[in-house]
Backbone:
């Protein structure tokens, strides 16, 4: 089971190797955040506000005030957008277009970030696969030199120690996947 508490029960911290990995991942995230353009930063700030309770509260107050004023409930304030509130409808339509654009900008940036993470993960996986294959091959060589032969040849170990051809795997996977 994975322990998600900040430190281990005996007060031990994570290993230096784990800390290096954590620092590397945090470094990638910090660099990605630093490399954002001003437009990306502004768009993300607005998209963050759009998804907040403050944004909803602001709109509830704004719409309520607009409707009360334009229904003529307050005699001292002049009506400027009579029912069915055409001006309000136009303003809300413009706002929808702009807000949707900001949310899409943030989604696009998040998608790019996710794609970079996926590429990095794939590189690590490919490296681990090569290292594992090489390790299995070396262990088999050691067993052969020492004359250690299992009672029955371990075919799975032999298959795993062979080089993996990724293009072949990708093609076979594509053939086996259902069509959309």
Residues:
């Amino acid at each position: 089971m994975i322990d998600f508490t900040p430190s281990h029960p005996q007060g031990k911290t994570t290993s230096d190797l784990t800390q290096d990995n954590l620092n590397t991942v945090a470094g990638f995230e910090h660099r990605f955040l630093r490399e954002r353009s001003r437009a990306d930063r502004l768009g993300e700030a607005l998209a963050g506000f759009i998804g907040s309770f403050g944004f909803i509260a602001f709109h509830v107050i704004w719409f309520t005030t607009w409707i009360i004023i334009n229904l003529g409930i307050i005699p001292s304030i002049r009506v400027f957008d009579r029912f069915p509130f055409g001006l309000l409808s136009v303003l809300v339509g413009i706002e929808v277009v702009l807000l949707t654009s900001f949310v899409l900008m943030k989604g696009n940036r998040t998608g790019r970030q996710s794609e970079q993470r996926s590429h990095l993960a794939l590189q690590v996986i490919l490296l681990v696969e090569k290292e594992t294959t090489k390790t299995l091959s070396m262990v088999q060589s050691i067993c052969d030199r020492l004359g250690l032969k299992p009672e029955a040849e371990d075919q799975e170990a032999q298959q795993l120690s062979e080089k993996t051809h990724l293009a072949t795997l990708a093609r076979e996977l594509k053939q086996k996947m259902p069509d959309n």
Summary: The radius of gyration is 30 Å.
